[in-house]
Design a protein that fits this description.
heterodimer, A: 167 residues, alpha+beta, Ubiquitin-like (UB roll), DNA polymerase, domain 1, 2 domains, 5 helices, 15% strand, B: 784 residues, Aldehyde Oxidoreductase, domain 4, Aldehyde Oxidoreductase, domain 3, 7-stranded mixed β-sheet, 19 helices
Chain lengths: 167, 784
Amino acid sequence: MSKVPVSMTINGETYSGDVEPRMLLVHFIREVAGLTGTHIGCDTTSCGACTIQLDGMPIKSCTMFAVQANGHSLKTVEGLATGAEMHPIQEGFMVNHGLQCGYCTPGMMMTSLALLAENPNPSELEIRTAISGNLCRCTGYVNIVRSIQYAADKMREPELAAAGQGD
Amino acid sequence: MAIESPKIMGYGTSPKRKEDPRFLHGKGTYVDDIKLPGMLHMDIVRSPYAHAKITNINIEPALETPGVLAVITGKDLDAAGLAWMPTLMSDTQMVLPVEKVVYQSQEVAAVIATDRYTAADGVMAVEVDYEPLPAVVDPFKALEKDSPLVRPDKGKDTNHIWHWEAGDKDATDKVFADADIVVEEDLYIPRIHVASIETCGCVASYDAVNGKLTIWMTTQAPHAIRTVFSLVSGIPEHKIRVISPDIGGGFGGKVPVYPGYVIAVVASLKTGRPVKWIEDRSENLQADSFARDYHITAQLAADKDGRIRGMKVKTLADHGAADAAANPSKFPAGLFSICTGSYDLEAAHVEVDAVYTTKPPGGVAYRCSFRVTEAVHTIERMVDRLAVELDRDPADLRYQNFIPKENFPYKSPTGWEYDSGDYKQALDVALERIGYEDLRKEQAEKRARGELMGIGISTFTEIVGAGPSNTFDILGIKMFDSAEIRIHPTGSAIVRIGVQTQGQGHETTFAQIVAEELGLPVDNITVEHGDTDTAPYGLGTYASRSTPTAGAATAVAARKIREKAKHIAAHLLECNPDDLEWKDYKFSVKGVPDRSKTMQEIAFAAYTNHPQGMEAGLEAVNYYDPPNLTFPFGAYVCVVDIDPGTGVVKIRRFVAIDDCGTVINPMIVEGQIHGGLTMGMAPSLFEEIPYDENGNNMAGTFMDYLLPTSLETPNWETGNTVTPSPHHPFGAKGVGESPTVGAPPAIVNAVVDALSHLGVKHVDIPMTPWKIHKLITDAQATTA
């Protein structure tokens, strides 16, 4: 099959390649860009293991072609931390035992962050609704909800401190 | 400023998990993340029919596809003697078929290509001609004389596979003849699938120069796989290396050997290049080993005063096209005979018959220690069934029949020796926590208003930690497990274990065992596992056996090190070893606590200043053969509300009190319980793999096979009691599966309780809205 050139920004770096038009975005991310933190769990948009952010919006990268992401800006789990220093969402999952096998975790965090960008102080039901497209087989979600609440609190700290409610 | 020294973090503490940073940074290494130079991809042609004769396979069009390097069929494998493979139950299963297919989605041929898309193109191009045969779907009909045979290769004129029984039939008949009342129920525990979020797959790489085969594989039992591969292929065992890297959930589904693994190995041998095979979700749900599928008829005999005296169970086990369970060899129905549960019965008799049908082979566990879920479901449903019959409160009836704590060790009527238990205490805690009396009042008020609310109890006994090697083996390999500990000169350590993690947190908890036993900070202990070239031989992680077996081995190996350390400490302190005591994580001279040596000091001396005549170094190995299984238990109470208009069951509250003996890491145990409860709820309410009359799988994607999401899953309320195992080195019992085993009957009992005034006495799982709505409307039609 003939190939077409694509180029996109992932975590601030440019990745380019000639790919078949039918190549799924998740395969571009994993196999062309070599960022294997994004996982594949179902191929049918059901499980959310492949969730990334495209221009800030959470998308399931198994249900988008690489060519559709041409020219866009993507963020994956590898773009969360600053060096070894964890992002509050990563810290939240670590502190609250929000992961076990770790397979769904990157997608779960990418969905959570999109929620927190839109709604910095979500209720439990809002969190559960937001992550209902991300399946986890290990944790029973209770600690994932706690992890996201932890991240929400931590990410709001500067704002609350500025408003004088931070102590 | 003083630098705080790292903490020991032994038993009962919750250090954060050592494995988490790599997962959180996206740096885990799952099988599909492995990319080798020159690696090829394999995809599989699968049968659209449940039962059909293969009349022709034309591979030419596939071979003409650019990028396709090879197509492998059953005939190729047959020529090499590899068309069939043994299952873990000493049955046989096709790797690729030569004559006919016996289940839908069965592997028919494999295409090897330069990338996964081209491999899929090749699959589309393979032409297979089938002559459909009648499907054998209903296991009862499969036993009838005129049923088509699924496995004529077996040389028998029936689809019956085996008959197995436990307990004393005569004694049980006598109790039944003598009892005041007998209740009976048919229970179907449907076919389900573990559906770990990572599917199965491997990368097989044969290095022709060194003659070494390396397989990265989604397996829960790498050593056993290596031995089986060596025996089947004839490749010497030291020339095979099986690596189980990071695994995205196992739950029993990654214990068996699937045809795809074997074909990928053959493909690598054939092409001389690494070959990757990763199944997609549909292949995973449609072809990999299923769990459960037990058709059970159970009877309880009791006296009018509520004393339960005897139990009879007859079961038909639908194994699909091969008995590909992963049970210990001598236990074809696993540990199903634990079905007398937490109650003191006079006699019991259990029979299981297994049958072939044209469905995928199995049945493996679904987060369960060899058929214990089926056993617990049976007894916990039947106790409630009896309670309804006798008009007794289900909690009250349980209290009356519990094995009293002073009767442990307790010999069950089917031959198990329960190690320890305090069932009354667990139920006390659970009922108190949920506010049982108030809930019963609320239920009465709601019922008067026409609202449907139910309360369900399950007081289960688990049986895990297989097992004592005189009775437990897999294909002849005894079910011991192992650990190897090496202390470095500066007091840090490496631990290698025969089991491996698929998310359970072994890298943390096994470090905690060494930390506790040797007084070394948990941060300074590395745990390695899953690589057969480096880890000691073990039987793997399933059936909640890691802590009872390899955990015990780790403690025993650590204690061997401690014994040697004592002699080094005596040398350093210039005293007799008998004058030393191990206290506060160090050796001190008795009565002179100031004169002491830490393990870190001793470790340094083991390499720099060890006594004359003693071997240098500080390390130990242990292969632990448990004297008995362990018997975790728990008391669960579930409260449900049912919407009469839709039939939707909502779990309002669920209190789970678990007793797994000594707890290593409470945070991890709680996480295991949350996950296990969710996998207990899943088949209770949502999951089933049904087949139509032609043997078509009706739940082959996540659109049809419904895993619980965050919205259906309640906030589990957990708690524990601690009744240590008397025979385990530090009293632990194992916990990963207790909640999956214990939860379903609590949920079913709650639903039946909510509907009991409508005349409902039993509901089979999954309790879907449609099923519940129909029960309600049927009951209303009857009373109208």
